[in-house]
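A.,

Following up on our hallway conversation. C-alpha cells first:
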C-alpha cells in the first residue's frame, strides 16, 4: 500500500501546483491617424486639325481625382506655359507663333475652367476613396477668329497644370 500512497502524494502535489497557478492580464490601445490625400491624372486635350475660315474646333479631355473618402477638394487650372497666355485667353505656341484656345467646365464652352481669376471657375468634389476616381471633363475650343485665321501652319502646343487643393 505504500506504493499507492506515494503515488497519491505525487499526484496530489501536481494538482496542488495547478491549483496554485495564477495569471494576470494587461491591455494596450492601438491608434493610427489616417491623413487626407489626393492624386490626379489628366488625359491629353488633342484637337483635330484646324482649317482657318472653316469653323472652330472643339474636343475634350478628362481629369481624374482620387482622394480619401469624404475629403473635399478643388481643381484649378493655370494659364498654361505659353508666354502671353492668360486664364481668360490661353495660347498654344509653334515657335514664336501662337494660336488662341481655351478650356471650359461645360460642353457649351461658356464657363472658363481656371483658377477663379478673371471670371474663370474651378471644379469641386468630395473624395470617394483612393481606389475610386472622380472624373471631371475639360471641354476645349480653338475659335475660328481673325487672330487664328492669320496663323502660320504648324503643330501648336501648350501645357496646363492641374492643381488639386484639399
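Then the amino acids I'd put at each of the 166 positions:
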Amino acid at each position: 500500500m505504500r506504493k499507492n500512497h506515494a503515488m497519491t502524494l505525487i499526484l496530489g502535489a501536481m494538482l496542488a501546483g495547478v491549483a496554485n497557478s495564477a495569471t494576470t492580464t494587461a491591455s494596450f490601445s492601438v491608434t493610427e491617424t489616417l491623413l487626407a490625400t489626393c492624386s490626379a491624372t489628366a488625359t491629353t486635350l488633342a484637337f483635330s486639325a484646324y482649317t482657318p475660315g472653316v469653323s472652330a474646333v472643339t474636343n475634350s479631355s478628362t481629369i481624374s481625382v482620387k482622394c480619401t473618402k469624404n475629403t473635399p477638394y478643388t481643381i484649378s487650372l493655370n494659364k498654361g506655359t505659353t508666354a502671353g497666355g492668360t486664364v481668360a485667353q490661353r495660347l498654344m505656341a509653334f515657335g514664336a507663333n501662337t494660336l488662341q484656345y481655351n478650356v471650359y467646365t461645360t460642353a457649351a464652352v461658356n464657363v472658363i475652367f481656371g483658377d477663379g481669376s478673371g471670371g474663370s471657375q474651378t471644379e469641386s468634389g468630395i473624395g470617394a476613396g483612393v481606389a475610386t476616381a472622380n472624373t471631371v471633363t475639360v471641354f476645349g475650343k480653338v475659335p475660328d477668329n481673325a487672330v487664328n485665321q492669320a496663323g502660320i501652319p504648324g503643330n501648336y502646343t501648350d501645357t496646363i497644370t492641374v492643381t488639386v487643393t484639399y
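The chain has a mean pLDDT of 92. Curious whether your intuition agrees with the design.

B.
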